[in-house]
Amino acid sequence: MAEMEERDFNDALDDWFMESLNTYKDLHVYQLEHPTQVLEWTSGKTVCVAGYAAARNEILELLLPLKLLADENKGLCAQRDFKVVHGGFTEGPVRCLTHVPGSRCVVTNDGLSSDLQVWSVGGDDSATDVIRLTGHVEGRKRRMKTMTKSASGREGGGGCQIAARLPSQVLHGAQTGDVQLTQLTSGQILYTLETTSDDPLSSLQFVSDAVFLAGGSNGDVYVADTRTSAAAQLYPAPLTPAGECALWWTAASSSGVLRLSSSGRAEVSDMRSPGVAVGRARLDIRSSRRDPKVSVSWAPALDDCISVSGFSGAVQIYDTSLWTTESRDIDPLFKHRGHAVSSQEEDVFVTAHVWHPERPRTLLSAAEDGSVHVWDWVDQSAAS
């Protein structure tokens, strides 16, 4: 039986490899010693990862394979693997990590409270390759080290969401009622989001220099301007069928606002009017897990495309320009199945993914078996 399963695994891997010759422009595989739930760009060539085990973990800055970065003569590049350029250790898990723009600092959260840890990654020409802990930022509310429930009875993940902007300012919070903007250099609190809700946050993003969006796991979205004391604008969750109790995730960009539920219902609206849907869809993202580590995002350099992961061992990409206001089943434009196909573990799940900030179809993805893939996919509809 074991021999038959090994043969089936090798056959599936061979089939996927042959398929990948036509579906990927580039594909590189890296194996971490311990899996990560964070993938964060620190430049166009480097990305940070960190472990999330309960005890001591590594935090690393990796340089992308030179072969991927080469525009011509890729075959002449000797380095075809990721390279560790900076590294350090954290005494707790890292569930969230954000790079501070214009600096060599990252901030992390352990998933146990809304407090932050501040790290110095060092410069490109630094004499040391050590990532050092340099400070802490206290959140507005201390949270229990267990899963919390929102007023609606839904369960939401612990820890906080983080967004950063120039100059060294970090927006952070664990719930919609405890979001604050902190100046890292002075520790001064510059802004607080005042709401009556304590729903766990699923998203926190700047959509301009001063305006940010906070998405609750109940589907509510708040849009606030840090330059004013005016109350944030609330856009309630989309209507759901009676009896449906779903978690929601939100992603925002200049392309619009995406709200995605754990039942697979997706809704896109214009950033200027987040309460009015311009596109709806039903996505095939059913999960066997009660609390999946979901990641949704807009492509930064590819119009109308979104990506979804965490419901399975795949990363799915959808073209929202094809959506109408009438909700219907939509197939993904592309599906990266590499983690599930190549893993020796049963039912491996993707833990994080991120688009390259400049290369339109290049993404990084990580899975709970410690694998990290960087891939540049081919749009088969355009190719045909």
CATH topology of the domain at 36-237: Methylamine Dehydrogenase, Chain H
Give the integer mean of the pLDDT values.
86
Strand-residue proportion? 35-45%
Dominant shape? globular
Low-confidence stretches: 142-157
Largest sheet: 5 strands, mixed
Distance between the ends:
41 Å
| Overall strand count | 31
Radius of gyration based on Cα positions: 21 Å
Please identify, by name, the CATH architecture of the domain at 36-237.
7 Propeller
Q: Helical element count?
A: 4
Q: What is the share of helical residues?
A: under 10%
Spatial strand sequence of the major β-sheet: 20-21-22-23-27
CATH class of the domain at 36-237: Mainly Beta
CATH superfamily of the domain at 36-237: YVTN repeat-like/Quinoprotein amine dehydrogenase
Structural class: mainly beta
Give a verbal description of the structure:
The chain is mainly beta. The chain has a domain at 36-237: 7 Propeller (Methylamine Dehydrogenase, Chain H). It is built from four helices and 31 strands. The longest helix is centred in the N-terminal third of the chain and has 22 residues, at 2-23.
Write the layout of secondary structure elements.
Blueprint: H1 2-23, E1 24-31, E2 40-41, E3 46-50, E4 57-63, H2 66-69, E5 83-90, E6 96-99, E7 105-109, E8 116-120, E9 132-137, E10 148-149, E11 155-156, E12 161-165, E13 169-173, E14 180-183, E15 189-192, E16 201-206, E17 211-216, E18 221-225, E19 233-235, E20 248-253, E21 256-261, E22 265-269, E23 277-283, E24 295-298, E25 305-309, E26 315-319, E27 329-330, E28 334-336, H3 338-342, E29 350-355, E30 362-367, E31 371-377, H4 380-383
